[in-house]
Amino acid sequence: MSKTPVPVLLVAGFLGAGKTTVVNHILAHAGGRRIAAVVNDFGAINIDAELIAGASDGVVNLANGCICCTLEGDLLRTLSTLLRRDPRPEAIVIETSGVAEPTDIIRNLMDPVILKEAPLETVLCVLDASSPPEALDDPLLRAQLKTADIVALSKLDLVGEAGRARVAEAVKALHPRALVIDAPNGTVPLDVALPQGPDRPAPLRDPGPRRPRLERFESYNWTSERPVSMPRLQQAIGRLAPKLARAKGLFETAEQSGRQFLFQLAGGRATLVPAGEPPPDRPRARIVFIAETGALSQAEIDTAMAACVAP
Is the pTM of this model over 0.90? Predict the structure, then answer.
């Protein structure tokens, strides 16, 4: 008796667009479906995997029956492992890195063996609606948008109706067949992203010819076994921010010991929110910095961040 195919949702989007928020919303509103989440972060410290609800040590069972694992090495091997789990997932969500062109992943998912067992149902691109108009001229973002079946507009609280309409119109001009939806706080309906139905054929996709990979971005990792000083951290981030494309991290502060905070920098905007108790088996501070190649160095980051460590 053949096994029922497991549909795949591929979530793409530029750095800081809000992909993890969308994935968390889908997992939290799975409606009883067993959903596997595969996270492909950029950098040795996989912050995104920690931010997926309930994730720990790479693979976990979530309260709603979901599972999460990091995408390390070969994508097909990772999917094969997921498909052998018992019970088998009913859907798989893959969150790509913000610096990834989805075409490479789509090409891998077109492998006949994987396509039979785990057909690519939907490519969803999360787009920061507050992005300036010139952002859509970025070749990487354009490539992400052009592969999408659905474009989900995030951070709508930062733009008015006119701004939302402007972005939607620009997306339609670039990719007329894409479905543009609003995704406030990551809200993407599961039946839109992963529709259910009998004998649904997987859409035929042509990722196009393989293009040379350009190493446009570099990631730098910084950790500390001691908490950081909040005022000093703010000063250091302020000095580094002009050179950063993205930064994200989890840390404990000397001012509020025993509490963990999530820090994110995207589009020139920094946010800091409580993130529960720090795990006992992780450094007290761990931050990933992403910059255009050549804009920063590890030594520059280490020097700036060393001054943040609480005595």
Answer: no
